[in-house]
């Protein structure tokens, strides 16, 4: 069974077509990014999953409608998850099906924090090395006692059962309170409201380029997360062994043009736009990594050298792409107005990164924070072209610096797009042919 349409044509606000992106990604980028993600430097991401939501009380994992949330009984908590953590269920979940759904969401959303003693010792050495570098900014969150390294290979982005009011409130807050638009203009989170949706897009098209770009990036991020859910769905679980795979029904519900009243293809095109932005950032940041003073340090000199060589090879490939997004078209008005708009752009995005601490499912929060930081790092690169060009060859930089976490997030966020293509494709076209 296949979708009845192909996503083709030129993307808005750039001179790039979907077919060119598909071909370039499939034959140039994907195999190398996949290898890079398996290396120690890029597979371990340090994240604080215990930061409280700064905007509202945490809803927890439970997906039951209108439920009151409290900690799960200790006997119901999966091995390795302590009582009192963010695993929650509802008093209102008083029948077996509701309780089963809630407990499944808890189990699937739990982060596998298994690390070898050798890895833990290596992280101490990594921290010493990173502390000796001249950082662009101090990130207190990474130094928090609650921050921990997570093995991304043990925690792939996929279906967790996290849904309902908690998930809806996160995305509604992002779109309604942080995208550039009057509050009277409704963002069609509900695809069954076509007339209101059309008014939204009519208004969106009248925005300046920068504000349209902002919306498309957030929509693309949302599409990426939903595609991972559809592509790596829990199909069945027998004898405690889950089977994962593409869920055509779920994909159709979220992206089919008929089911979504035309909204689905817009979401997919915005995902391509997100790819272009991150691809452009990789091509622009190459001079930073080409310097001999920059290492991808893990303590294994041979592996570190191979990792850097592979990364530089990917940079060379990204430079060969002929249809890059032109970031110079952004913030190109009068200097005072452009500076003010850029700061507003930055603050809106920063606020969205804070909202990710309101995601009730640990695994969803992990990937939400990683993808958001990866995109934020891409934007930081695109807005720092002069600083990157003026970097000293043999000494730490003062004007531009990337932390280990920003580098890991950037590569894995970009690789997240590649991986969802490989999960949902029957051929070399991304998520337009999905087998059920």
UniProtKB/TrEMBL annotation:
The gene is ERO1B. Pfam families: ERO1 (PF04137). This is Endoplasmic reticulum oxidoreductase 1 beta. The active site is at residues 361, 364. Keywords: Disulfide bond, Electron transport, Endoplasmic reticulum, FAD, Flavoprotein, Glycoprotein, Membrane, Oxidoreductase, Redox-active center, Signal, Transport. It is found in: Endoplasmic reticulum membrane. It comes from the Eukaryota. Transmembrane segments: none annotated. The keyword rRNA-binding does not apply.
